[in-house]
Amino acid sequence: MDKLAIGPGLPEGVVHLDASPAENLRELARAKKCDIGDLMVCTLDRDRHAEMIKACRAAGARITLLGDGDVSGVIAVSQPEAGIDIYMGSGGAPEGVLAAAALRCIGGQMFGRLMFEDEEQAKRALEMGVSDPAKIYRGDEMARGNVMFAATGVTTGAMLRGVRRTPGGAVTHSIVMRSKSGTVRYVEGLHNFARKPAAFIA
């Protein structure tokens, strides 16, 4: 899926998947009343993004590259402390739906368009009800209705701390979001393996 996401409080249509990186950055800077040089773009560090990254830098924007986990990159556009203004790039479609669900909870705009590697994938999508393979989906189309989003960190990243082993247990860091109320909760879980079934320890 080709993905594009920005944070809340911005006009509808300020960015578009069919626009060039420079065009999207120019319009986003105008909407945020700042210079393009003030904008931070987030994307996955992949060879397929080399031209896009080059175009963003040529336009004057700064870049944050993620090794993995574009869900956290999309969510970051709605977290002021992250300092991310826009997410661009392609990645897994399931991750796109997860990211859309998260933005439904905390605000922001997301757009996605399926990408097919071969005719077999396109045929499979058609059989699953995708009538227009070039359709651009909004976040509320990818994640409809009342949505909840929950994630637990496995390794430490920009959004969550990873699992920490302790003598006889572990500590986990999770986030839970709800679209109906806009609530975001961070949960630190203390797990005592001695109180769990043997199957859990294994």
- Rg, Å, rounded: 19 Å
CATH class bucket of the largest domain: Alpha Beta
Order of helices and strands: EHEHEHEHEHEHEEEEH
- Please give the count of helices: 7
Helicity level, as a percent range?
Answer: 25-40%
Biggest sheet statistics: 6 strands, mixed
Dominant shape: globular
Q: Which residues sit in consecutive blocks of at least 5 with pLDDT less than 50?
A: none
Q: Write out the strand line-up for the largest beta sheet, numbering strands in chain order.
A: 3-2-4-1-5-6
**Protein structure class:** alpha+beta
**Count of individual domains:** 2
Structure summary, number of beta strands: 10
List the helices and strands and how they pair.
Blueprint: E1 2-6, H1 21-32, E2 40-44, H2 50-59, E3 62-66, H3 70-76, E4 86-90, H4 93-106, E5 109-113, H5 119-127, E6 137-138, H6 139-142, E7 148-152, E8 164-166, E9 169-178, E10 183-192, H7 198-201
Parallel strand pairs: 2-3, 2-4
Antiparallel strand pairs: 1-4, 1-5, 5-6, 7-9, 8-9, 9-10
Helix pairs in contact: 1-2, 3-4
Please provide a written account of the structure.
This protein has 202 residues and is an alpha+beta fold. It has 2 domains: 144 residues, D-Maltodextrin-Binding Protein, domain 2 (3-Layer(aba) Sandwich); 52 residues, no CATH class. It has 7 helices and 10 strands. The protein has a 6-stranded mixed sheet with strand order 3-2-4-1-5-6, sandwiched between helices. Helix 1 crosses helix 2 and helix 3 runs parallel beside helix 4. The longest helix has 14 residues. The two termini are 36 Å apart.
What is shown here, in short?
The chain has helices at 21-32, 50-59, 70-76, 93-106, 119-127, 139-142, 198-201; strands at residues 2-6, 40-44, 62-66, 86-90, 109-113, 137-138, 148-152, 164-166, 169-178, 183-192. The chain has 202 residues and is an alpha+beta fold.
